[in-house]
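Quick check before the chapter quiz. The format below is the same one you will see on the exam, so make sure you can read both the input and the output lines.
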Amino acid sequence: MRSFTSPGRGPSTGSDHCSDHALLVCQDPTLSERFFKEVLDFYPTERVQPELESEQCMATWLSAGQKIHDIAILGGPVQGKLHHFAFQLEDWSKVLRAADIISMDDISLDIGPTRHGITRGETIYFFDPAGNRNEVFAGGYRAYPDRPCVVWTPDQLAKGIFYHDRVLNEAFTTVWT
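Here is the expected output.
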């Protein structure tokens, strides 16, 4: 594997990327969402619910400001696991450049490049040398606390997660660290 500061790329200046969000796995996403709302003053921007009128959520994307999400929570059979940690990139061209670097360095690619329906972000998922799933993320839309939360149902989930393919990869929702 090449050095991450190989010729032609140089060391990062930190000016074009930063941490963006994390997606956590828990057994009760409704309870976790309530905690983030009531204790930490986050608000949901998008959710997956069993049906449109349900108060229960299967997954939630929460913001503390105007980013589409600062944290996301996915329901799963385990508690306290990390699905991924995401880094913000400037735009789609930077996501594609990340795809080139991932390919050049033979980094384990998970998904992408693609777009999410949920959040409207452009993305690539990959595994770092320690086995953690990471994401590079660009785009999305500006969130506001008074904007209605977008609700998705399980039958829309494939389109919500992988907008272009509209096919769920089982490992994407069952592999955590």
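If your answer matched, good. Strands lie at 17-26, 43-48, 59-63, 71-75, 81-89, 108-115, 121-127, 133-139, 150-152.
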